[in-house]
Amino acid sequence: MFSGIVQAVGVIEKVEPLEQGVRLTIEAAGLGLADVGIGDSIAVNGACMTATSISGDRFTVDVSRESLDVTAGLGAPGKVNLEKAMALGDRIDGHLVTGHVDGVGEVVAFEQAGESWRLAVRAPKDLGRFIARKGSITVDGVSLTVNRVEDGAAGATFEVNLIPHTLEVTTLSRLKAGAKVNLEIDLLARYVQRLLESRGGPG
Question: What DSSP state is assigned to residue 118?
Fold first, then answer.
């Protein structure tokens, strides 16, 4: 379990092909790996991954072909947002995040708005019903609050506001129109939907 508060920006330095996926070597000097062991979970761009080896400031993860097919930014070298799994009793500054990516969205706008920036993302159509104004959403592992959402034929487009601090400590400053991002809907929305289905409500 995570909170969506990015702890460091790391770098995928090496991508090695496996029979069914890839092995990533990630430099994570800013994260601090002294308290991380093999088998521990680390969110990489919002996707929960298992550390398979640790050496100094670097760790490796194996990403299955299935995970590569449903995420963005994990198949090539580049900067990634990192967060260690929460410990019981930790303060939750963002919101409860599982690290299970629900879909890949597409950036449709990224522009300055006063002292902050407006990010608009089009989510897959099947995720639109789970995105609500003033609700929470995770974009590439970053916990954000939805300011606006509009349904369309191609999917729901939502907007979030990014303050300068968020841009400084995450990879979101590198986004531009057309970029793909990992999305995870609010955990509570999943259970509300499941409850409605079990009671014969809308599916």
Answer: E
Q: What CA–CA distances, in Å, run from 186 to 102, 138, 178?
A: 10, 8, 24
The domain 103-198: what is its CATH number? 2.40.30.20
For residue 111 the two structure tokens come to: 């522009």
Which residue intervals of the chain bear CATH 2.40.30.20? 8-84, 103-198
What is the CATH topology of the domain spanning 8-84?
Elongation Factor Tu (Ef-tu); domain 3 (2.40.30)
* pLDDT tens for each residue of the chain, 203 residues long: 999 999 999 999 999 999 999 999 999 999 999 999 999 999 999 999 999 999 999 999 999 999 999 999 999 999 999 999 998 888 888 898 999 999 999 999 999 999 999 999 999 999 998 999 999 999 999 999 999 999 988 889 999 999 999 999 999 999 999 999 999 999 888 778 778 777 765 55
Considering the entire predicted model, what is its pTM?
A: 0.92
Evaluate whether 143 touches 191 at the Cβ level (below 8 Å). Answer: no
Query: Could you tell me which residues come within 8 angstroms of residue 201 by beta carbon, excluding any fewer than 6 positions away?
Result: 195
Paired residues of 152 in beta bridges: 155
